[in-house]
Structures are given as structure tokens and as C-alpha cells.
Write a structure and sequence with these properties.
247 residues; mainly alpha; rod-shaped
């Protein structure tokens, strides 16, 4: 760690000189180390040290080392710039992640409050429609009114189940909507409820909705709300974009 700290300090000092100045300084350091080493080797071998050989050695080091050092300093400068850009990108990503987390919490709080506000009137609608459907306060002589009350109650139950699913944000956002609540039920009931919910939409667009429901014994193992939602989406798309012959 001490060696690395010393090298980082040396690099910081060289960076202040620029690429040309740092190249000259490092080349001079190389010459200052090589010349005494050459002198020591020649002395140990018992050979004389020629001034011309010292000059030639110095020139060779300058010619060979200077371009390499200059290129290395240029690469180091580019790496520093890249590191600075990466650090800035990391900082921005951290800020974005924090903002996204705050937005997620705000969305969850909004959905929770919205669901609470929706449930209160929805429970009243479902309660009143059930009273009318079951004729607890007296008979309803018009069968169409009974059918409307049943449709209102069915639509309310469907909407309540959607609200309950929205509240489970972790499951929905992770794409882990499971079929743990799947059960076996007659397909006829889901299709009939879906057709009843889009019948008024068909009248609005001048499309007559005709349902040929499967018999009672045709049953499926699924989540009733999901089947209803799939059918409502399909029926709604068909009503909004009917073929020319059906319009």
C-alpha cells in the first residue's frame, strides 16, 4: 500500500508537468539510473569507462525510452478521463436509482390511498346491488332490473378483485403473478359475466353482442377474475374495431 501511495503521489506530480514535461522528467530519471549502473558494471569488470560510451548510452535511452514514455503518459491520461466519466456516470446512476426508489414508494402510497377511497363506495354499490338482486326488501317485478342488479354486483366483485391485485405491487412488478388462487369453475359463468359487462359498450358503438355460451358441464381450472379480464379485453377490442359487415 505504501509503494502504491508513493507511485500515486509521483504520478500526481508528473501530471502537473503535462505529457511533454512528464516524459522529459521520466526520461531523465531513466538516464540518471542507467548511467551509474553502467559505470558500476564497468568498474566491477575492471574495464575503463569511456565518456563517449556514457554519451551514447544516454542518447540510446532517450531515443528508445522517450517515445514509449510519451505514449504511456498519453494512455494514462485517457484512462484517467475514462475513469472520471465512469465515476460521474456511477454518481448519476446512484441518484437515478434513489429517485426511482422514491417514485416507487410514492406510487405505492398513492395506490394504497386510491384503493382505500375506491373500496368505500364500491362496498356500498355491491351491498345495495346484492340487496336488490336477492330481493331482501321485497320482490322486484321487472326481471330486467334483477338482471341489472346482478350485473352491477358481478362488476363490483370484479373491480374489487382488480383493486386487490393492484395492491400487491411486489408480485405484479416482479412478474410473479401466480395461480395459487386458481379453482375449478364453469366457464359459462365467466363468459356470461364478461358479455354482460360489455353489452352496453356494444350498444354505444351500434354492435349487437350475441353470446353462445358453453354448457354448464364445461369447467376450467383457472383464476376466475383473470378469465373475466381476458374476455372483457377481447370483447372490448372486438366492439371498438368491428369488421365492416358487423358495424
Amino acid at each position: 500500500m505504501r509503494v502504491r501511495s508513493a507511485l500515486d503521489a509521483l504520478d500526481a506530480q508528473l501530471s502537473r508537468l503535462g505529457r511533454v514535461g512528464s516524459t522529459a522528467a521520466l526520461t531523465a530519471m531513466a538516464v540518471s539510473f542507467a548511467v551509474p549502473l553502467h559505470f558500476l558494471v564497468r568498474t566491477l569488470e575492471g574495464l575503463p569507462v569511456q565518456p563517449l560510451s556514457i554519451l551514447n548510452l544516454s542518447l540510446e535511452i532517450v531515443i528508445v525510452a522517450a517515445p514509449m514514455i510519451f505514449y504511456a503518459r498519453d494512455v494514462i491520461a485517457q484512462l484517467k478521463k475514462s475513469r472520471a466519466r465512469l465515476d460521474e456516470m456511477s454518481r448519476r446512476l446512484a441518484i437515478s436509482a434513489e429517485q426511482a426508489q422514491h417514485a416507487k414508494k410514492a406510487k405505492s402510497a398513492f395506490l394504497a390511498n386510491m384503493s382505500h377511497e375506491l373500496r368505500t363506495p364500491l362496498n356500498a354499490i355491491m351491498g345495495f346491488s346484492e340487496v336488490m338482486k336477492e330481493q331482501h326488501l321485497g320482490p322486484v317485478h321487472n326481471p330486467r332490473y334483477l338482471g341489472y342488479a346482478a350485473d352491477i354486483h358481478s362488476s363490483g366483485c370484479h373491480l374489487l378483485s382488480i383493486i386487490n391485485d393492484i395492491l400487491d405491487l411486489s408480485k405484479i412488478e416482479a412478474g410473479k403473478m401466480s395461480l395459487e388462487s386458481a379453482e375449478e369453475f364453469p366457464l359459462r359463468h365467466s363468459l356470461g359475466g364478461s358479455l354482460a359487462m360489455v353489452a352496453e359498450l356494444g350498444q354505444k358503438y351500434g354492435v349487437r353482442v350475441v353470446g353462445e355460451l358453453p354448457p354448464e358441464h364445461v369447467r376450467v381450472l383457472a383464476v376466475d377474475r383473470m378469465i373475466r379480464q381476458i374476455m372483457i379485453n377481447l370483447f372490448g377490442n372486438a366492439i371498438n374495431s368491428p369488421p365492416p359487415a358487423a358495424a
